[in-house]
Amino acid sequence: MTVYGVGLGPGDADLVTVKGKQILESVDVVYSPGRLSRTVALNHVPESRIGDLDFPMTRDPDELRRAWKEAAAEVAEQAKSSDVAFVTLGDPNVYSTFGHLRRTLDAFHPEVELEVVPGVSAMTAFATALGVEIESGTGLSLREAANGAAPTGPDRMILFKVTDAVATHEGLTDAGYDVKFGRRLFMEQGETLVTSDPKEIEERDYYTLAYAEREGLERDVATAEFDGVDSEGSA
């Protein structure tokens, strides 16, 4: 039998892919690592088929290893007799808790078949939510910015885990960037907020992203207008 890692998207139940929805409806058990992913999954499966796994909020490596081994053992046991799914917000292979489960299954239960069903990640959905166009030829870097970090270098960056927006904004503006923030984008839980003012999102929230672009960055974007041609198409 197969364990499916299913990406639920950024939090809106309607943004689950067609294949993801089909998998959720077909498996016997849908395991969830937390409250938010559970809430999204419940839009597609009854609560009787949800299996909750305990992942403690700790940095203690021994406790984390124990929790992941126990979770993998439960999932592997269920997978002996039926297909199961493990759901996660975003995409299972992009900064996801599914990676811990996959590595633990590979190490202790190599007989388990695994299949990943991609999902819309917040790092890609941000472009629509923030009204930012990432045009052809654009270089874009993905960086973590927890605890006030303000990484610099690339002309354009997506920053995730922005937990101290004020400090991150200060560091980036001092380095010559324009910054726009998005919090809980496309999420049904909590308030979605898009702003250029870090004080509006001063309260720490793990589900905050930012887009940083170097000030004065020139663009060469193709349009429907051409030099020397009028609106009727004549020179």
From TrEMBL:
GO terms for molecular function: cobalt-factor II C20-methyltransferase activity; precorrin-2 C20-methyltransferase activity. The keyword Methyltransferase applies. One of its GO terms (biological process) is cobalamin biosynthetic process. Pathway: Cofactor biosynthesis; adenosylcobalamin biosynthesis. It comes from the Archaea. Keywords: Cobalamin biosynthesis, Methyltransferase, Plasmid, Transferase. InterPro entries: 4pyrrol_Mease, 4pyrrol_Methylase_sf, 4pyrrole_Mease_sub1, CobI/CbiL, Uropor_MeTrfase_CS. Pfam families: TP_methylase (PF00590). NCBIfam families: PRK05576.1-6 (NF004063). Belongs to the precorrin methyltransferase family. This is Cobalt-factor II C(20)-methyltransferase. It comes from Haloferax mediterranei (strain ATCC 33500 / DSM 1411 / JCM 8866 / NBRC 14739 / NCIMB 2177 / R-4) (Halobacterium mediterranei).
